[in-house]
Amino acid sequence: MVADKAKKAKLAERAPEENHDADQIDGDLVLSIEKLQEAQDDLEKVNEEASDKVLEVEQKYNVIRRPVYLKRNEIIKTIPDFWLTAFLSHPALSDLLSEEDQKIFKYLSSLDVEDFKDVKSGYAIRFNFNGNPYFEDTKLTKTFTFFDDGTTKIAGTTIKWKEGMGVANGVNHGKKGNKRPPAEESFFSWFSETEQKDIAEFQDEVAEIIKEDLWPNPLKYFNNEADEEDSEGDEEENGDDDDNNGEEDTEGDS
């Protein structure tokens, strides 16, 4: 009994010390987290400043690039079916052109992608056409405007199809006798896809491919260089596989 009382007395003495240690640990932890948050806030400020500087540089070079793009477009106009060929050679865009679309693309004189002056606020993609038997428009445009509230406004040209040329979904089909070919998805229906979306949900793959891949270097696709690069990559992979197989055979023989 005496031993039990002594044990309880020791535990009672240690309890305040343990509580004090726990309070000390909690206090140190809170202080460390507060300091960590301050450091994180400082880092965010630096990142925001860096983003602003990147945008300033991008806007500066957009101005410098603009006349070069215009000069390039003038040269492209002298090359027959340039944009049609580039589209058909692109692994993603080629699937979007129906046979009728390809006929219309023969009248495409130039393609233009232009960021807004404030590059983070949006951009426009313009297709300029020569006079053609399909629609009245000489310019088809699709614009993407990004707002501070997180929404995206998408606007596209309402195509003025000539009589007998425009059907549902913007698909262009001519009649063959008394029969009309089955409706198929047309690239030109893309101009009517203008539902406003949140930036988090915004994804227009066609626009992104044109802006980020085709527009910077369309000559690569016109020359089919993309296919050549893929072929070279496949050959290198096959070569590596052959080397590995050879090493395995050598080890097996030894």
Automatic annotation (TrEMBL):
Basic and acidic residues composition bias: residue spans: 1-23
First and last residue of the signal peptide: none
Bias (Acidic residues) ranges: 225-254
Annotated stretches, region: Disordered: 1-26, 218-254
Any one GO biological process: nucleosome assembly
Coiled coil: 29-60
GO CC terms, sorted: nucleus
MF GO annotations: histone binding
Record keywords, A-Z: Chaperone, Coiled coil
Entries under Pfam families matching the protein: NAP (PF00956)
Family per similarity comment: Belongs to the nucleosome assembly protein (NAP) family.
UniProt protein name: Putative nucleosome assembly protein (NAP)
